[in-house]
Amino acid sequence: MKERLDDECLLSVEMNQFFKEQVPLVEQDLGKKINHHEITFMLQVLPYLLLSCHNVEQYQERHQDIEKEFSLIRKRIEYQVSKKLGERLFQKFEISLSGLEVSLVAVLLLSYRKDLDIHAESDDFRQLKLALEEFIWYFESQIRMEIENKDDLLRNLMIHCKALLFRKTYGIFSKNPLTKQIRSKYGELFLVTRKSAEILEGAWFIRLTDDDIAYLTIHIGGFLKYTPSSQKNMKKVYLVCDEGVAVSRLLLKQCKLYFPNEQIDTVFTTEQFKSVEDIAQVDVVITTNDDLDSRFPILRVNPILEAEDILKMLDYLKHNIFRNKSKSFSENLSSLISSYIVDSKLASKFQEEVQTLINQEIVVQAFLEDI
């Protein structure tokens, strides 16, 4: 499906550009900032969904059933914003969206993840807030760490779970590319989140998948309190990440955990970083983006840090050298293990355990490096 979306474009260049230009207007009307990756995917799938609407409208009985399903949508601001978008589309191309098509666009706006939502704490989501407060309280009772800035965490979860509930209601699938890494590297945190999330499942009459739990784990992981050690000869580090608020915050926490003696205070989006780059004073930029360019040294890492990422960062922050870009640590380790263990599943499991031990040792060394 992804390869097909990459290769095909059902919209003309002019119309594709029109929809891209509409994104900030839609966000302004909504009072919400839609996640960058969700916008990209929405622009790719929108023509296919509109075509499916055209097919449905040919069958009157099915059309009426879907209209009933969408009745609640028409009460929300997303529907009004979708109507405005349809009006601008008609003014530009003289193409009209049907009521069903407007409703479908509204469902997409409701369902996609948001980085900002000024309506997150509106009265109609009071029950959602109560369930999340109980979820946070139960989670904290099950761990030995403290959650900091609970109000901010609650607000972020409100934004995330509003979209989550609409996805569940209308059967919109959302794949989390970080689920495997979260389960592997933060297994205990994932399990506690899974247990705590039973509160949400019971309150909202839904079933949360592992992908859903991983997203919740990412949100919570970014608010777990850590204790920094004394700082000496620290480097100033900028983080640049366009993966959304939750992933960005978790990336910040990971970097602070592994390198507590460096000055790592915030995460920029690419747009934010470019706006301050000319006046910035920084030793290195660590980014999850493949295409970021800068006058500063750049280290590219995964959102969930791998052993190779940590070693790469350690080499530069402590010794001012870049690691050899040939074979990665993980690839070398995999080759070594496979020469002794033939069974691929056993070899993979053993490699994960070895890398977990190495990660733990790196944490210790990072804390002891400047003592």
TrEMBL record:
Which PROSITE patterns does this chain map to? PRD_2, PTS_EIIB_TYPE_2
Per the record, the domain of life is: Bacteria
* Gene assigned in the entry: licR
Recall the GO molecular function terms of this protein's record: protein-N(PI)-phosphohistidine-sugar phosphotransferase activity
- Tell me what organism the protein belongs to: Streptococcus pneumoniae
Q: Which Pfam families does the record cross-reference, listed alphabetically?
A: PRD
Domain (PTS EIIB type-2) ranges: 235-325
Span of domain PRD: 10-119, 123-230
Q: Which UniProt keywords apply?
A: Repeat, Transcription, Transcription regulation, Transferase
Instruction: Write down the InterPro entries for this protein, in alphabetical order.
Output: BglG_antiterminators, PRD, PRD_sf, PTS_EIIB-like_sf, PTS_EIIB_2
Q: What is this protein called?
A: BglG family transcriptional regulator
One example of a Gene Ontology biological process annotation: phosphoenolpyruvate-dependent sugar phosphotransferase system
